[in-house]
Amino acid sequence: MGVTFLKKLDQAVTQNNSLLCIGLDPVIDKLPPHIKNLHKPFFKFNKALIDATQDIVCAYKPNSAFYEARGAEGIAELKETCDYIHDRYPEIPVILDAKRGDIGSTNEGYAIYAFDYLRVGAITLHPYLGGASLTPFLDRVDRGLIILCKTSNPDSDELQSLLHNGKPLYEHVARQVIRNWNKKNNCLMVIGATYPEDLANIRGMTDEMVFLIPGIGRQGGDLGKTLTAGLNTKKRGLIISASRSVIFAGAGRDFADRARREAMRLNDIINRYRT
Amino acid sequence: MGVTFLKKLDQAVTQNNSLLCIGLDPVIDKLPPHIKNLHKPFFKFNKALIDATQDIVCAYKPNSAFYEARGAEGIAELKETCDYIHDRYPEIPVILDAKRGDIGSTNEGYAIYAFDYLRVGAITLHPYLGGASLTPFLDRVDRGLIILCKTSNPDSDELQSLLHNGKPLYEHVARQVIRNWNKKNNCLMVIGATYPEDLANIRGMTDEMVFLIPGIGRQGGDLGKTLTAGLNTKKRGLIISASRSVIFAGAGRDFADRARREAMRLNDIINRYRT
Q1: Testing the interface with A: which of B64, B129, B179 to mutate, by most A Cβ within 10 A?
Q2: pLDDT tens, B7-62?
Q3: φ and ψ at A25, to 5 degrees?
Q4: Of A183, B41, B169, B271, which has fewest CB within 10 angstroms of its CB?
Q5: Domain coordinates in residue numbering, chain A
Q6: The complex's ipTM?
Q7: Beta-bridge partner residues of A146
Q8: B127:A159 CB<8 A
Q9: E strands, A101-208, in order
Q10: What's the fold here for domain B5-272?
Q11: Where does A5-170+186-272 sit in CATH, by number?
Q12: pLDDT, tens only, B172-204
Protein backbone atom coordinates (compact mmCIF):
# COMPACT_ATOMS: atom_id res chain seq x y z
CA MET A 1 0.00 0.00 0.00
CA GLY A 2 3.01 2.31 0.16
CA VAL A 3 3.47 5.09 2.66
CA THR A 4 0.36 6.34 4.46
CA PHE A 5 -0.99 9.86 4.07
CA LEU A 6 0.00 10.80 7.63
CA LYS A 7 3.54 9.49 7.20
CA LYS A 8 3.95 11.28 3.87
CA LEU A 9 2.61 14.47 5.42
CA ASP A 10 5.05 14.19 8.30
CA GLN A 11 7.93 13.72 5.88
CA ALA A 12 6.87 16.75 3.84
CA VAL A 13 6.65 18.84 7.02
CA THR A 14 10.23 17.86 7.84
CA GLN A 15 11.61 18.19 4.31
CA ASN A 16 10.13 21.64 3.64
CA ASN A 17 10.08 22.78 7.29
CA SER A 18 6.50 23.82 6.75
CA LEU A 19 3.00 23.37 8.15
CA LEU A 20 1.58 25.48 5.32
CA CYS A 21 -0.92 24.00 2.88
CA ILE A 22 -1.97 25.98 -0.18
CA GLY A 23 -5.58 25.76 -1.26
CA LEU A 24 -5.77 25.50 -5.05
CA ASP A 25 -9.14 27.19 -5.52
CA PRO A 26 -9.15 28.95 -8.89
CA VAL A 27 -11.98 31.20 -10.04
CA ILE A 28 -12.04 32.28 -13.68
CA ASP A 29 -12.74 35.97 -12.98
CA LYS A 30 -9.80 36.22 -10.60
CA LEU A 31 -7.18 34.60 -12.83
CA PRO A 32 -4.37 36.77 -14.25
CA PRO A 33 -5.41 38.09 -17.69
CA HIS A 34 -2.65 36.19 -19.50
CA ILE A 35 -3.97 32.87 -18.07
CA LYS A 36 -7.72 33.43 -18.14
CA ASN A 37 -8.25 32.88 -21.84
CA LEU A 38 -5.82 30.01 -22.33
CA HIS A 39 -6.90 26.44 -22.93
CA LYS A 40 -7.03 24.66 -19.51
CA PRO A 41 -6.73 27.87 -17.48
CA PHE A 42 -7.13 26.20 -14.07
CA PHE A 43 -4.42 23.66 -14.72
CA LYS A 44 -2.01 26.30 -16.03
CA PHE A 45 -2.70 28.58 -13.07
CA ASN A 46 -2.20 25.71 -10.63
CA LYS A 47 0.93 24.40 -12.33
CA ALA A 48 2.64 27.78 -12.03
CA LEU A 49 1.63 28.04 -8.36
CA ILE A 50 2.82 24.51 -7.61
CA ASP A 51 6.18 24.98 -9.34
CA ALA A 52 6.68 28.22 -7.40
CA THR A 53 5.81 26.84 -3.96
CA GLN A 54 6.54 23.10 -3.89
CA ASP A 55 9.57 23.50 -1.63
CA ILE A 56 7.78 25.55 1.05
CA VAL A 57 4.49 23.69 1.62
CA CYS A 58 3.51 20.47 3.40
CA ALA A 59 0.47 19.82 1.18
CA TYR A 60 -1.81 21.15 -1.55
CA LYS A 61 -5.55 21.26 -1.11
CA PRO A 62 -7.75 21.75 -4.19
CA ASN A 63 -11.41 22.30 -3.32
CA SER A 64 -13.63 20.28 -5.65
CA ALA A 65 -16.34 22.99 -5.75
CA PHE A 66 -14.25 25.38 -7.82
CA TYR A 67 -13.64 22.72 -10.46
CA GLU A 68 -17.20 21.37 -10.47
CA ALA A 69 -18.38 24.90 -11.28
CA ARG A 70 -16.82 24.28 -14.71
CA GLY A 71 -18.36 20.84 -15.07
CA ALA A 72 -16.62 17.92 -16.74
CA GLU A 73 -13.93 20.24 -18.09
CA GLY A 74 -13.16 21.51 -14.61
CA ILE A 75 -12.95 17.97 -13.23
CA ALA A 76 -10.50 17.04 -15.99
CA GLU A 77 -8.31 20.00 -15.00
CA LEU A 78 -8.54 19.01 -11.34
CA LYS A 79 -7.31 15.54 -12.30
CA GLU A 80 -4.53 17.02 -14.38
CA THR A 81 -3.52 19.18 -11.41
CA CYS A 82 -3.46 16.20 -9.04
CA ASP A 83 -1.60 14.05 -11.55
CA TYR A 84 0.98 16.81 -12.02
CA ILE A 85 1.70 16.92 -8.30
CA HIS A 86 1.80 13.12 -7.98
CA ASP A 87 4.19 12.76 -10.90
CA ARG A 88 6.41 15.83 -10.54
CA TYR A 89 6.47 16.26 -6.75
CA PRO A 90 5.50 12.84 -5.38
CA GLU A 91 6.69 13.77 -1.90
CA ILE A 92 3.95 16.42 -1.50
CA PRO A 93 0.57 15.03 -0.37
CA VAL A 94 -2.68 16.24 -1.91
CA ILE A 95 -5.86 16.78 0.10
CA LEU A 96 -9.16 16.88 -1.77
CA ASP A 97 -11.40 19.38 -0.01
CA ALA A 98 -14.77 17.96 -1.00
CA LYS A 99 -16.80 17.80 2.22
CA ARG A 100 -18.59 14.65 1.15
CA GLY A 101 -20.82 12.42 3.22
CA ASP A 102 -23.63 10.05 2.16
CA ILE A 103 -24.83 6.59 3.14
CA GLY A 104 -22.22 3.84 2.93
CA SER A 105 -23.05 2.38 -0.47
CA THR A 106 -22.96 5.86 -2.02
CA ASN A 107 -19.76 6.86 -0.26
CA GLU A 108 -18.07 4.08 -2.25
CA GLY A 109 -18.47 6.29 -5.31
CA TYR A 110 -16.95 9.31 -3.62
CA ALA A 111 -14.04 7.23 -2.30
CA ILE A 112 -13.33 6.02 -5.83
CA TYR A 113 -13.48 9.61 -7.13
CA ALA A 114 -10.98 10.87 -4.55
CA PHE A 115 -8.64 7.94 -4.04
CA ASP A 116 -8.65 6.03 -7.34
CA TYR A 117 -9.50 8.64 -9.96
CA LEU A 118 -7.77 11.71 -8.50
CA ARG A 119 -5.39 9.55 -6.41
CA VAL A 120 -5.32 12.08 -3.57
CA GLY A 121 -4.01 11.19 -0.14
CA ALA A 122 -6.88 12.61 1.91
CA ILE A 123 -10.41 13.97 1.70
CA THR A 124 -12.57 16.19 3.92
CA LEU A 125 -15.85 14.64 5.15
CA HIS A 126 -19.10 15.65 6.87
CA PRO A 127 -19.84 13.87 10.16
CA TYR A 128 -23.65 14.24 10.13
CA LEU A 129 -24.50 10.68 8.98
CA GLY A 130 -22.26 9.09 11.61
CA GLY A 131 -19.12 6.98 11.57
CA ALA A 132 -20.57 3.75 10.16
CA SER A 133 -21.64 5.53 6.97
CA LEU A 134 -18.03 6.58 6.43
CA THR A 135 -16.72 3.00 6.39
CA PRO A 136 -15.80 3.07 2.65
CA PHE A 137 -13.46 5.95 3.51
CA LEU A 138 -12.29 4.73 6.92
CA ASP A 139 -11.38 1.34 5.46
CA ARG A 140 -8.72 2.98 3.29
CA VAL A 141 -5.96 2.65 5.86
CA ASP A 142 -3.36 4.40 3.74
CA ARG A 143 -5.45 7.55 3.20
CA GLY A 144 -6.42 10.47 5.43
CA LEU A 145 -10.03 11.11 6.41
CA ILE A 146 -10.45 14.67 7.59
CA ILE A 147 -13.72 15.04 9.48
CA LEU A 148 -15.40 18.43 9.84
CA CYS A 149 -15.46 19.25 13.55
CA LYS A 150 -15.60 23.04 14.06
CA THR A 151 -15.75 24.92 10.79
CA SER A 152 -14.28 28.37 10.13
CA ASN A 153 -17.41 30.19 8.95
CA PRO A 154 -18.81 32.99 11.17
CA ASP A 155 -22.08 31.21 12.02
CA SER A 156 -20.72 27.70 12.49
CA ASP A 157 -22.02 27.73 16.07
CA GLU A 158 -25.65 27.51 14.90
CA LEU A 159 -25.54 23.71 15.13
CA GLN A 160 -21.95 22.96 16.11
CA SER A 161 -22.29 24.64 19.50
CA LEU A 162 -25.62 23.12 20.56
CA LEU A 163 -25.06 21.62 23.98
CA HIS A 164 -25.54 17.92 24.72
CA ASN A 165 -24.81 16.95 28.33
CA GLY A 166 -23.23 20.36 28.77
CA LYS A 167 -20.79 19.94 25.86
CA PRO A 168 -21.07 21.46 22.38
CA LEU A 169 -21.86 19.23 19.41
CA TYR A 170 -18.44 19.78 17.82
CA GLU A 171 -16.86 18.31 20.95
CA HIS A 172 -19.03 15.19 20.66
CA VAL A 173 -17.94 14.88 17.05
CA ALA A 174 -14.31 15.18 18.16
CA ARG A 175 -14.81 12.55 20.85
CA GLN A 176 -16.46 10.11 18.43
CA VAL A 177 -13.70 10.60 15.88
CA ILE A 178 -10.91 10.19 18.44
CA ARG A 179 -12.44 7.22 20.28
CA ASN A 180 -14.40 5.34 17.63
CA TRP A 181 -13.83 6.43 14.04
CA ASN A 182 -10.02 6.49 14.20
CA LYS A 183 -9.56 2.75 14.72
CA LYS A 184 -7.12 2.60 11.80
CA ASN A 185 -5.22 5.76 12.75
CA ASN A 186 -6.20 7.53 9.56
CA CYS A 187 -8.51 10.28 10.85
CA LEU A 188 -7.84 14.01 11.07
CA MET A 189 -10.26 16.84 11.85
CA VAL A 190 -11.10 20.28 10.44
CA ILE A 191 -11.03 23.08 13.00
CA GLY A 192 -11.32 26.70 11.84
CA ALA A 193 -8.59 29.20 12.73
CA THR A 194 -11.41 31.58 13.60
CA TYR A 195 -12.09 29.61 16.82
CA PRO A 196 -8.77 29.29 18.70
CA GLU A 197 -10.48 28.52 22.02
CA ASP A 198 -12.32 25.58 20.50
CA LEU A 199 -9.07 24.47 18.91
CA ALA A 200 -7.34 24.53 22.32
CA ASN A 201 -10.26 22.56 23.74
CA ILE A 202 -9.90 19.83 21.13
CA ARG A 203 -6.09 19.77 21.29
CA GLY A 204 -6.61 19.04 24.98
CA MET A 205 -8.39 15.82 23.97
CA THR A 206 -5.60 14.46 21.73
CA ASP A 207 -1.96 15.34 21.33
CA GLU A 208 -1.46 13.05 18.34
CA MET A 209 -4.24 13.85 15.92
CA VAL A 210 -3.50 16.23 13.05
CA PHE A 211 -5.94 19.09 12.46
CA LEU A 212 -6.55 20.82 9.14
CA ILE A 213 -6.93 24.53 9.89
CA PRO A 214 -8.67 26.72 7.32
CA GLY A 215 -9.65 30.31 8.04
CA ILE A 216 -6.40 32.27 8.12
CA GLY A 217 -5.96 34.90 5.42
CA ARG A 218 -9.21 36.28 3.95
CA GLN A 219 -11.35 34.71 6.65
CA GLY A 220 -9.47 36.62 9.35
CA GLY A 221 -8.31 33.85 11.67
CA ASP A 222 -5.44 34.83 14.00
CA LEU A 223 -2.34 32.81 13.14
CA GLY A 224 -0.59 33.37 16.47
CA LYS A 225 -3.56 32.35 18.58
CA THR A 226 -4.18 29.36 16.31
CA LEU A 227 -0.63 28.06 16.67
CA THR A 228 -0.51 28.63 20.42
CA ALA A 229 -3.78 26.76 20.78
CA GLY A 230 -3.23 23.98 18.29
CA LEU A 231 0.41 22.89 18.03
CA ASN A 232 1.07 19.58 19.74
CA THR A 233 4.03 18.77 21.98
CA LYS A 234 6.17 18.03 18.90
CA LYS A 235 5.32 21.51 17.53
CA ARG A 236 3.45 19.80 14.73
CA GLY A 237 -0.04 18.38 14.37
CA LEU A 238 -1.48 21.22 12.26
CA ILE A 239 -1.98 21.75 8.54
CA ILE A 240 -2.41 25.50 8.19
CA SER A 241 -4.32 26.12 5.00
CA ALA A 242 -4.40 29.38 3.05
CA SER A 243 -6.11 29.74 -0.30
CA ARG A 244 -7.20 33.11 -1.65
CA SER A 245 -4.64 35.20 0.27
CA VAL A 246 -1.84 33.20 -1.36
CA ILE A 247 -3.05 32.23 -4.82
CA PHE A 248 -4.48 35.67 -5.57
CA ALA A 249 -1.65 37.62 -3.86
CA GLY A 250 -0.83 39.01 -7.30
CA ALA A 251 -2.95 39.29 -10.42
CA GLY A 252 -0.28 39.97 -13.04
CA ARG A 253 2.39 37.97 -14.86
CA ASP A 254 4.28 37.63 -11.58
CA PHE A 255 1.35 36.02 -9.74
CA ALA A 256 3.27 32.85 -8.91
CA ASP A 257 6.21 34.82 -7.45
CA ARG A 258 3.80 36.89 -5.41
CA ALA A 259 2.12 33.73 -4.19
CA ARG A 260 5.52 32.31 -3.21
CA ARG A 261 6.39 35.46 -1.28
CA GLU A 262 3.08 35.39 0.60
CA ALA A 263 3.49 31.67 1.33
CA MET A 264 7.02 32.26 2.66
CA ARG A 265 5.80 35.14 4.80
CA LEU A 266 3.09 32.93 6.33
CA ASN A 267 5.44 30.02 6.82
CA ASP A 268 8.01 32.25 8.54
CA ILE A 269 5.37 33.43 11.00
CA ILE A 270 4.21 29.85 11.58
CA ASN A 271 7.76 28.62 12.18
CA ARG A 272 8.43 31.38 14.73
CA TYR A 273 5.80 29.69 16.92
CA ARG A 274 7.34 26.25 16.40
CA THR A 275 10.78 27.00 17.90
CA MET B 1 -37.19 33.11 -13.49
CA GLY B 2 -39.86 30.72 -14.71
CA VAL B 3 -41.74 28.24 -12.54
CA THR B 4 -40.20 27.34 -9.19
CA PHE B 5 -39.01 23.83 -8.35
CA LEU B 6 -41.81 23.31 -5.83
CA LYS B 7 -44.46 24.44 -8.31
CA LYS B 8 -43.05 22.23 -11.05
CA LEU B 9 -42.92 19.29 -8.63
CA ASP B 10 -46.52 19.85 -7.65
CA GLN B 11 -47.57 19.92 -11.30
CA ALA B 12 -45.67 16.69 -12.03
CA VAL B 13 -47.33 15.02 -9.01
CA THR B 14 -50.72 15.97 -10.44
CA GLN B 15 -49.96 15.14 -14.07
CA ASN B 16 -48.48 11.69 -13.37
CA ASN B 17 -50.49 11.02 -10.19
CA SER B 18 -47.23 10.06 -8.53
CA LEU B 19 -45.09 10.80 -5.51
CA LEU B 20 -42.43 8.41 -6.79
CA CYS B 21 -38.95 9.65 -7.61
CA ILE B 22 -36.47 7.36 -9.31
CA GLY B 23 -32.84 7.57 -8.25
CA LEU B 24 -30.58 7.36 -11.29
CA ASP B 25 -27.59 5.74 -9.62
CA PRO B 26 -25.79 3.58 -12.18
CA VAL B 27 -22.88 1.32 -11.29
CA ILE B 28 -20.86 -0.21 -14.14
CA ASP B 29 -20.81 -3.74 -12.72
CA LYS B 30 -24.59 -3.81 -12.35
CA LEU B 31 -25.49 -2.58 -15.83
CA PRO B 32 -27.12 -5.01 -18.27
CA PRO B 33 -24.42 -6.71 -20.38
CA HIS B 34 -25.67 -5.14 -23.63
CA ILE B 35 -25.22 -1.64 -22.14
CA LYS B 36 -22.09 -2.07 -20.05
CA ASN B 37 -19.57 -1.95 -22.88
CA LEU B 38 -21.21 0.73 -24.99
CA HIS B 39 -19.83 4.24 -25.32
CA LYS B 40 -21.53 6.44 -22.64
CA PRO B 41 -23.03 3.50 -20.74
CA PHE B 42 -24.52 5.59 -17.90
CA PHE B 43 -26.32 7.93 -20.27
CA LYS B 44 -27.71 5.07 -22.34
CA PHE B 45 -28.85 3.19 -19.24
CA ASN B 46 -30.50 6.33 -17.85
CA LYS B 47 -32.12 7.30 -21.14
CA ALA B 48 -33.85 3.93 -21.42
CA LEU B 49 -35.04 4.16 -17.80
CA ILE B 50 -36.31 7.70 -18.28
CA ASP B 51 -38.17 6.91 -21.50
CA ALA B 52 -39.79 3.92 -19.77
CA THR B 53 -40.91 5.75 -16.63
CA GLN B 54 -41.39 9.44 -17.43
CA ASP B 55 -45.19 9.22 -17.18
CA ILE B 56 -45.24 7.58 -13.73
CA VAL B 57 -42.74 9.63 -11.68
CA CYS B 58 -42.78 13.06 -10.05
CA ALA B 59 -39.00 13.55 -10.30
CA TYR B 60 -35.66 11.96 -11.13
CA LYS B 61 -32.77 12.03 -8.68
CA PRO B 62 -29.27 11.25 -9.97
CA ASN B 63 -26.71 10.94 -7.17
CA SER B 64 -23.50 12.74 -8.12
CA ALA B 65 -21.29 10.14 -6.36
CA PHE B 66 -21.99 7.43 -8.93
CA TYR B 67 -20.94 9.72 -11.78
CA GLU B 68 -17.92 11.18 -9.98
CA ALA B 69 -16.62 7.63 -9.57
CA ARG B 70 -16.00 7.75 -13.33
CA GLY B 71 -14.39 11.19 -13.21
CA ALA B 72 -14.82 13.82 -15.91
CA GLU B 73 -16.40 11.25 -18.23
CA GLY B 74 -19.02 10.38 -15.62
CA ILE B 75 -19.82 14.05 -15.05
CA ALA B 76 -20.29 14.55 -18.78
CA GLU B 77 -22.79 11.66 -18.81
CA LEU B 78 -24.56 13.11 -15.77
CA LYS B 79 -24.92 16.37 -17.67
CA GLU B 80 -26.16 14.56 -20.75
CA THR B 81 -28.72 12.74 -18.58
CA CYS B 82 -29.96 15.99 -17.02
CA ASP B 83 -30.05 17.74 -20.39
CA TYR B 84 -32.03 14.86 -21.86
CA ILE B 85 -34.70 15.17 -19.17
CA HIS B 86 -34.81 18.99 -19.42
CA ASP B 87 -35.17 18.90 -23.20
CA ARG B 88 -37.34 15.83 -23.75
CA TYR B 89 -39.49 15.85 -20.60
CA PRO B 90 -39.32 19.45 -19.36
CA GLU B 91 -42.26 18.93 -17.02
CA ILE B 92 -40.29 16.44 -14.85
CA PRO B 93 -38.05 18.10 -12.23
CA VAL B 94 -34.53 16.82 -11.55
CA ILE B 95 -33.01 16.64 -8.07
CA LEU B 96 -29.23 16.42 -7.78
CA ASP B 97 -28.42 14.25 -4.80
CA ALA B 98 -25.02 15.67 -3.94
CA LYS B 99 -25.10 16.31 -0.17
CA ARG B 100 -22.90 19.34 -0.46
CA GLY B 101 -22.09 21.92 2.20
CA ASP B 102 -19.09 24.23 2.57
CA ILE B 103 -18.47 27.83 3.62
CA GLY B 104 -20.43 30.43 1.67
CA SER B 105 -17.83 31.49 -0.87
CA THR B 106 -17.17 27.85 -1.76
CA ASN B 107 -20.85 26.95 -1.94
CA GLU B 108 -21.07 29.38 -4.87
CA GLY B 109 -19.11 26.84 -6.90
CA TYR B 110 -21.44 24.00 -5.98
CA ALA B 111 -24.52 26.11 -6.74
CA ILE B 112 -23.12 26.85 -10.20
CA TYR B 113 -22.41 23.13 -10.75
CA ALA B 114 -25.96 22.11 -9.83
CA PHE B 115 -28.07 24.99 -11.06
CA ASP B 116 -26.18 26.48 -14.01
CA TYR B 117 -24.13 23.60 -15.39
CA LEU B 118 -26.49 20.67 -14.76
CA ARG B 119 -29.54 22.98 -14.61
CA VAL B 120 -31.26 20.83 -11.98
CA GLY B 121 -34.20 22.09 -9.99
CA ALA B 122 -33.00 21.05 -6.55
CA ILE B 123 -29.99 19.79 -4.60
CA THR B 124 -29.49 17.95 -1.31
CA LEU B 125 -27.37 19.76 1.32
CA HIS B 126 -25.65 19.09 4.66
CA PRO B 127 -26.77 21.30 7.56
CA TYR B 128 -23.60 21.07 9.68
CA LEU B 129 -22.12 24.49 8.75
CA GLY B 130 -25.38 26.31 9.49
CA GLY B 131 -27.89 28.29 7.48
CA ALA B 132 -25.78 31.36 6.72
CA SER B 133 -23.21 29.23 4.90
CA LEU B 134 -25.96 27.99 2.58
CA THR B 135 -26.88 31.50 1.37
CA PRO B 136 -25.61 30.91 -2.20
CA PHE B 137 -28.15 28.08 -2.43
CA LEU B 138 -30.95 29.69 -0.40
CA ASP B 139 -30.78 32.84 -2.53
CA ARG B 140 -31.84 30.84 -5.60
CA VAL B 141 -35.55 31.39 -5.03
CA ASP B 142 -36.62 29.29 -7.99
CA ARG B 143 -34.69 26.18 -6.88
CA GLY B 144 -35.25 23.61 -4.16
CA LEU B 145 -32.78 23.22 -1.27
CA ILE B 146 -33.22 19.83 0.37
CA ILE B 147 -31.56 19.83 3.78
CA LEU B 148 -30.47 16.57 5.43
CA CYS B 149 -32.50 16.23 8.62
CA LYS B 150 -32.81 12.54 9.59
CA THR B 151 -30.95 10.26 7.20
CA SER B 152 -31.95 6.71 6.27
CA ASN B 153 -28.76 4.87 7.26
CA PRO B 154 -28.92 2.43 10.20
CA ASP B 155 -26.60 4.42 12.48
CA SER B 156 -27.84 7.90 11.69
CA ASP B 157 -28.72 8.39 15.35
CA GLU B 158 -25.05 8.58 16.36
CA LEU B 159 -25.12 12.38 16.03
CA GLN B 160 -28.63 13.10 14.77
CA SER B 161 -30.27 11.87 17.97
CA LEU B 162 -28.02 13.63 20.47
CA LEU B 163 -30.31 15.54 22.81
CA HIS B 164 -30.17 19.31 23.21
CA ASN B 165 -32.71 20.70 25.67
CA GLY B 166 -34.42 17.34 25.59
CA LYS B 167 -34.84 17.28 21.80
CA PRO B 168 -32.74 15.34 19.28
CA LEU B 169 -30.38 17.21 16.98
CA TYR B 170 -32.39 16.34 13.85
CA GLU B 171 -35.37 18.14 15.37
CA HIS B 172 -33.28 21.26 15.95
CA VAL B 173 -32.18 21.08 12.33
CA ALA B 174 -35.84 20.79 11.29
CA ARG B 175 -36.80 23.77 13.45
CA GLN B 176 -33.99 25.93 12.07
CA VAL B 177 -34.91 25.02 8.50
CA ILE B 178 -38.63 25.66 9.02
CA ARG B 179 -38.26 28.90 11.01
CA ASN B 180 -35.09 30.50 9.69
CA TRP B 181 -33.63 28.94 6.53
CA ASN B 182 -36.90 28.77 4.58
CA LYS B 183 -37.44 32.53 4.28
CA LYS B 184 -37.85 32.21 0.50
CA ASN B 185 -40.08 29.12 0.63
CA ASN B 186 -37.57 27.01 -1.24
CA CYS B 187 -36.48 24.54 1.45
CA LEU B 188 -37.30 20.85 1.73
CA MET B 189 -35.82 18.22 4.05
CA VAL B 190 -34.47 14.68 3.77
CA ILE B 191 -36.03 12.19 6.20
CA GLY B 192 -35.30 8.47 5.84
CA ALA B 193 -38.16 5.99 5.38
CA THR B 194 -36.37 3.87 7.94
CA TYR B 195 -37.50 6.23 10.74
CA PRO B 196 -41.29 6.67 10.42
CA GLU B 197 -41.66 7.92 14.01
CA ASP B 198 -39.18 10.70 13.41
CA LEU B 199 -40.97 11.49 10.16
CA ALA B 200 -44.29 11.80 12.03
CA ASN B 201 -42.57 14.03 14.57
CA ILE B 202 -41.31 16.40 11.89
CA ARG B 203 -44.58 16.34 9.92
CA GLY B 204 -46.15 17.57 13.14
CA MET B 205 -43.99 20.69 12.90
CA THR B 206 -45.03 21.66 9.34
CA ASP B 207 -47.89 20.60 7.12
CA GLU B 208 -46.56 22.47 4.09
CA MET B 209 -42.95 21.47 3.73
CA VAL B 210 -42.08 18.73 1.25
CA PHE B 211 -39.83 15.89 2.44
CA LEU B 212 -37.57 13.79 0.27
CA ILE B 213 -37.80 10.21 1.55
CA PRO B 214 -35.02 7.80 0.67
CA GLY B 215 -34.73 4.36 2.22
CA ILE B 216 -37.55 2.29 0.74
CA GLY B 217 -36.52 -0.66 -1.40
CA ARG B 218 -33.07 -2.07 -0.66
CA GLN B 219 -32.72 -0.10 2.58
CA GLY B 220 -35.85 -1.73 4.00
CA GLY B 221 -37.98 1.28 4.94
CA ASP B 222 -41.69 0.48 5.39
CA LEU B 223 -43.74 2.24 2.72
CA GLY B 224 -47.06 2.07 4.58
CA LYS B 225 -45.69 3.44 7.84
CA THR B 226 -43.82 6.13 5.93
CA LEU B 227 -46.92 7.34 4.11
CA THR B 228 -49.11 7.24 7.20
CA ALA B 229 -46.51 9.26 9.09
CA GLY B 230 -45.50 11.68 6.37
CA LEU B 231 -48.35 12.61 4.02
CA ASN B 232 -49.70 16.08 4.67
CA THR B 233 -53.38 17.07 4.77
CA LYS B 234 -53.44 17.33 0.96
CA LYS B 235 -52.11 13.75 0.72
CA ARG B 236 -48.93 15.14 -0.77
CA GLY B 237 -45.78 16.63 0.70
CA LEU B 238 -43.53 13.61 0.09
CA ILE B 239 -41.10 12.64 -2.64
CA ILE B 240 -40.68 8.88 -2.23
CA SER B 241 -37.36 7.95 -3.73
CA ALA B 242 -36.33 4.49 -4.89
CA SER B 243 -33.08 3.77 -6.66
CA ARG B 244 -31.55 0.28 -6.76
CA SER B 245 -34.82 -1.64 -6.32
CA VAL B 246 -36.20 0.03 -9.47
CA ILE B 247 -33.25 0.61 -11.78
CA PHE B 248 -31.78 -2.84 -11.19
CA ALA B 249 -35.16 -4.66 -11.09
CA GLY B 250 -34.00 -6.49 -14.22
CA ALA B 251 -30.53 -7.09 -15.59
CA GLY B 252 -31.34 -8.18 -19.13
CA ARG B 253 -32.48 -6.52 -22.36
CA ASP B 254 -35.86 -5.83 -20.75
CA PHE B 255 -34.35 -3.91 -17.80
CA ALA B 256 -36.30 -0.73 -18.58
CA ASP B 257 -39.63 -2.59 -18.74
CA ARG B 258 -38.83 -4.32 -15.48
CA ALA B 259 -37.97 -0.97 -13.92
CA ARG B 260 -41.27 0.44 -15.17
CA ARG B 261 -43.19 -2.48 -13.67
CA GLU B 262 -41.48 -2.07 -10.30
CA ALA B 263 -42.07 1.70 -10.38
CA MET B 264 -45.77 1.15 -11.17
CA ARG B 265 -46.03 -1.37 -8.36
CA LEU B 266 -44.54 1.10 -5.88
CA ASN B 267 -46.65 3.97 -7.14
CA ASP B 268 -49.83 1.88 -6.86
CA ILE B 269 -49.02 1.11 -3.22
CA ILE B 270 -48.24 4.77 -2.55
CA ASN B 271 -51.46 5.93 -4.15
CA ARG B 272 -53.54 3.51 -2.07
CA TYR B 273 -52.47 5.54 0.97
CA ARG B 274 -53.33 8.81 -0.72
CA THR B 275 -57.05 8.16 -1.29
Answers
A1: B129
A2: 999 999 999 999 999 999 999 999 999 999 999 999 999 999 999 999 999 999 99
A3: -125, 70
A4: A183
A5: 5-170+186-272
A6: 0.97
A7: A124, A188
A8: yes
A9: 122-125, 144-150, 163-164, 167-168, 187-191
A10: TIM Barrel (3.20.20)
A11: 3.20.20.70
A12: 999 999 999 999 999 999 999 999 999 999 999
